[in-house]
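Per your request, structure below.
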């Protein structure tokens, strides 16, 4: 280079620093997107499990007769469910006269289990309600 001339362009060090900053920014953005995607998958699975449990709670006593026992099943999505129906036993000394003697209470419990993903453990959800029905 001659005196009075200025160098134009980037040096190797400047190029490496710029590349390092770009890669660091890319990694941060990539991790943020992956974290958001995992969160969306977890939210979808939990929402699906709640909807499945609610549908089986609603169906008890409407689509099937309320009677003590247990039913099991699995959905194509990989959710395993169990519906357990138990007779409600009033506390000792409770008055069972009149209309109460013609109806019975049943505890309906629905448990839904599913795999949370490759790196997550199995997850589960349980909903329970008390339903009334005519005594058999």
């Amino acid at each position: 280079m001659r005196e009075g001339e200025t160098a134009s362009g980037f040096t190797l060090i400047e190029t490496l620093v710029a590349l390092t900053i770009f890669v660091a920014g890319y990694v941060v953005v990539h991790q943020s997107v992956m974290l958001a995607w995992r969160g969306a998958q977890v939210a979808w699975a939990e929402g699906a499990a709640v909807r499945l449990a609610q549908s089986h709670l609603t169906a008890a006593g409407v689509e099937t007769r309320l009677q003590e026992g247990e039913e099991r099943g699995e959905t194509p999505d990989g959710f395993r469910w169990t519906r357990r129906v138990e007779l409600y036993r009033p506390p000792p000394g409770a008055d069972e006269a009149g209309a109460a003697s013609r109806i019975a209470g049943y505890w309906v419990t629905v448990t839904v289990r599913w795999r949370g993903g490759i790196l997550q453990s199995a997850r589960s959800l349980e909903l329970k309600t008390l339903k009334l029905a005519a005594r058999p």
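Residues 12-59 form the longest helix (48 residues).

Regards,
D.
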